[in-house]
Amino acid sequence: MPYTFIAKVLIAISLTLLTGCSQSLNSSIEYYQFEQAIKPIQRNSIDTSTQLRINTVTLRGALNNRGIAMKIDNNQINAANYHLWSEAPDQMLTASSHQTLFTALDDWMVVKGLPVITDKDQQSYYELEYELHHFYGDKQGNADIAGLWRLYYTSFEQGRSLQAVHYFSELTPLVENDYEGLVASLEKTWHTINLQVAAQLHTIKRSSKIH
């Protein structure tokens, strides 16, 4: 019976410990990133009714590590030594979230971060915060992303107020039983989460007196 992905990872860890320095000399580092296609799209402020500002995604503990993470036990996470993200995960996830939400929320002006406010109209906006508690593969062969998001609204008259808090947990079976498959599955999971957030934001906006 073929080994599962987690078994391969554990074997790789054992071999690394046994071979010591010679392993580090013979192993090459592989870099990975989300392969999110960029579609030509533009939006003008006069065509939108709401501004959404996406803060940099926060990852719990050591999850914001260049080494791709695997959960190998209930209380143990392992970060790969030779399979690395090409950039810090928080920056990659934020860019991916921005692109997905910009595309899905066609009547919103979606921007990253908190730009300089130049006039009164720009002082009314929504603000989205992500906090991730899971961002790894598990020993059952899934990509696991879980955490929460918070939505704030800021206005010139009322200041900043919390509008909603949503916890989420998504598991996606690996498309392939290797690191490339794990990365692809994590990207698919993150895309699904952001589409769900977009749908919930539409609902919140429709039911709110805030515009």
Summarize the structure.
The protein is an alpha/beta fold and 211 residues long. Helices cover 31% and strands 35% of the residues. Residues 1-24 form the signal peptide.
Descriptive tags:
Rossmann fold; signal; ABC-type transport auxiliary lipoprotein component domain-containing protein; single chain; 6-stranded mixed beta sheet
Could you state the CATH homologous superfamily? ABC-type transport auxiliary lipoprotein component
Output the CATH class name: Alpha Beta
CATH topology: Rossmann fold
The number of E-state strands comes to 9
Instruction: List the total number of helices.
Output: 4
- Strand content is 35-45%
Indicate the low-confidence ranges by residue numbers: 13-25
What Rg is obtained from the alpha carbons, in whole angstroms? 20 Å
Helix % is 25-40%
Please identify, by name, the CATH architecture: 3-Layer(aba) Sandwich
Q: How far apart lie the N and C ends?
A: 58 Å
Give the helices and strands as they follow along the chain.
HHEEEEEHEEEEH
Number of discrete domains: 1
Biggest sheet statistics: 6 strands, mixed
Overall mean pLDDT stands at: 85
Structural class: alpha/beta
Shape: elongated
Keywords: Signal
InterPro entries: ABC_trans_aux
Protein name: ABC-type transport auxiliary lipoprotein component domain-containing protein
Pfam family, one: ABC_trans_aux
Structural overview:
The structure is a single chain. The protein is α/β, with parallel strands linked by helices. It has a single domain, classed as ABC-type transport auxiliary lipoprotein component (Rossmann fold, 3-Layer(aba) Sandwich). It is built from four helices and nine strands; from the N terminus they run ααβββββαββββα. The strands form two sheets. Strands 2, 3, 6, 7, 8 and 9 form a six-stranded mixed beta sheet that branches. β7 and β8 form a beta hairpin. α3 crosses α4. The N and C termini lie far apart (58 Å).
